Amino acid sequence: MTEKQREEAEWENINMLLMTHGLKPLSLEKRTDLKDFIIFDKQSSQKMRQNLKTLVEETECQQKMIQELIETNQQLKQNVSIIKENEWSNKRLLLLCKRISTD
Questions:
Q1: How far apart are CA 47 and CA 57, in angstroms?
Q2: Buried b / exposed e across 37-46, counting CB within 10 Å, b at 16+?
Q3: In which domain, by residue range, is 20 found?
Q4: pLDDT in tens, 7-64
Q5: Considering the domain boundaries, does residue 33 fall inside one?
Q6: Which of 20, 74, 79, 100 is 20 to 30 A from 42 via CA?
Q7: Residue 85 in domain
């Protein structure tokens, strides 16, 4: 595999990663007429690929963290609800005990 083919394969991998996350793929042009294109050197191209990969991975990590926070919040709400129910039951039990003791 030539260096150009390897770079194209890396860009295709980036495109797959982008599409997996609902983003649009980048267009790879193989034309010689370059008047409407911006060209990057190999080092810049590599940095861009790495930056895109890192960005998508960090976004994925943040989405997982948000999901975990949502789940933890729901569990805490359930726990608070159970505690309130227990407090209410305890108050009713105390009132009942007071009535029994006064009778």
A1: 15
A2: eeeeeeeeee
A3: 3-28+39-102
A4: 888 889 989 988 988 888 887 777 677 677 667 788 888 898 999 999 999 999 999 9
A5: no
A6: 20
A7: yes
Give burial (CB, 10 Å; 0-12/13-18/19+) of 8: middle
CB-CB contact of 26 with 14 (8 Å): yes
3-class secondary structure, 24 = coil
Cα separation, 26 vs 20, in Å, equals: 13
Ramachandran bin of 25, using left for φ above 0, alpha for ψ from -120 to 50, beta for the remaining angles: beta
Domain count, the chain: 1
CA distance 43 to 96: 79
Which residue type, as a one-letter code, is found at position 56? V
Which pair of tokens denotes residue 4?
Answer: 């150009």
The angle at the Cα of 20, spanning 16 to 62, to the nearest 5 degrees, equals: 120
Q: Is the pTM of this model over 0.70?
A: no
Judge whether 34 lies within some domain: no
